[in-house]
Write a structure and sequence with these properties.
The complex is a heterodimer of chains A (436) and B (115).
Chain A (H helix, E strand, L loop, with lengths): L1 H23 L6 H28 L5 H28 L31 H19 L9 H24 L4 H5 L7 H19 L15 H20 L7 H29 L4 H15 L8 H26 L7 H19 L17 H32 L6 H6 L1 H6 L9
Helix pairs in contact in A: 2-3, 2-4, 2-8, 3-4, 3-5, 4-5, 4-7, 5-7, 5-13, 7-12, 7-13, 8-9, 8-10, 9-10, 9-11, 10-11, 10-12, 11-12, 12-13
Chain B lengths: L2 E8 L4 H10 L6 E7 L6 E5 L2 E6 L1 E11 L3 H12 L7 E7 L13 H4 L1
Helix pairs in contact in B: 1-2
Classes of the chains: A mainly alpha (436), B alpha+beta (115).
Chain lengths: 436, 115
Amino acid sequence: MKKSLMIISVILFLSAVNAFAGSDSSPKIDTGDTAWVLICAALVMLMTPGLAFFYGGLVRRKNVLGILMQCFIALAVLSLHWVIIGYSLSFSPGNGFIGGLKWFALNGVGAEPYADYAATIPHSAFMIFQAMFAIITPALIIGAFAERMKFSAFLIFTLLWATFVYDPIAHMVWGVGGWLKGLGTLDFAGGTVVHINDGIAALVTAIVLGKRKSYDRHPTPPHNLPFSALGAALLWFGWFGFNAGSALGANGIAVNAFVVTNTAAAAAALGWAMLDWLFNGKPTMLGTISGAVAGLVAITPAAGFVGIIGAIIIGLLVSVFCFIAVGFIKHKLGYDDSLDAFGIHGIGGIWGAVATGLFATKLINPAGSDGLFFGNAGQFIVQLAATAVTAGYTFIATLIIYKLVDMVIGVRVGEEEEAMGLDLAQHNERAYTMLE
Amino acid sequence: MIMKLVIAIIQPHRLEQVKEELYKEEVNLITVSEVLGHGRQKGVTEVYRGFKETGNLLRKIRLEIAVNDNFVEPTIRAITKGAQSGKTGDGKIFILPLEQCVRIRTGERGGLAIG
């Protein structure tokens, strides 16, 4: 008995010594963290096809392939862009505004962790996780210019936008030495980098591209709402990777992000359905899934910093703001943000960033910060500043890129092609056959 | 023999009852299509993200039945019996003269080919 106790204590002692030795050496890869981040990268990848179905169901039947094609080609083109230059511009050490070319073609980005971003997973795992964010962000803008943009123009616009808008914003907020990061901006999973960014770009493109030809005469009902519901479900599912994965480890912060993400989506879906019921007579399927997506958008920057009460309030209120934006403000101002990319991602993203400054608390994440409601007004001001900077930069840069592409090849399809539908006009295909 | 083409627009959910009534009257030849339209009830209202659209076309069923003259009244009777609810939107029956009818399998023509 005594002997066995002795052996056990020796083993315990040795393992403790080992643990100390481990913490002394260079960053050590944690297999649990690595597995989690890789799975999350796959989850976030699924969001872009999910978005394709969400948007695809909302357009007319003659344009559904146009949407699916834009989303899928974004997956292809931006994957390449990211590994060649995008990751380096976003995350390699550079100035406060943009990264350098040190990691061009992933030079030096390998199995060794890069502790400034994630100390317990291979650097390349962080890179591929981030790749999925860089893909879906430009894809989200598609909703604003649906049913009327040339495919060639879309390709060039998307590449330029990824290079000159997404990459710098990602660097400013998340990159080593980024100046918004230096200000203390809290953006857990991409409220500013992804949603304010794509939302404002959506507003710009919807305004400068002009309305669809049929827009004034009648709205165009979704051609396949079940597709949209399926897409929204895939987005919700993938968003666990987006938010909980942004903890970059399998830990308590990841679990908190997972829980508040689900909670905010639920509150917002229910909220929008109730608003529909109150103001439009009946609760609608489209309203409910729009609410869910709005809730997911809003909780994104806050997921690692707020608790359950914050998540419920963020979710309920985002539905109110987006409901007003897409149901009233859009029609009053008369721009054709066709699938409400600005109305949901822009408005939801701004609310999320601001709300993070209200509800964040160190009780949830000691590495974060307290918000206004926890006695730190400074954080609230920082969030407002980051929102304004992101929105301002995106607005101007998107406008310039759009005008440039329009000057060189023309952005909008011809009137006849628009009437024919992008599926036939741009891709020589039809989504649904009549016969056989 | 005189032939007529009966075209009827009915509510989709009444199709099964109309078919049953037609079989009772021994009218077995029928072509059915899904169509859109509206009459006095002026269509439905749909709401998408708060955007209300009134006067949308309703789903209807269109029947085409070619008959010899003596079957016109039984056909009308059957359709009416099967499709009538007494409410707006029950539909309409149109009777048109029919020039010719050819059975493709045999080449038979006229009243012989129709049944």
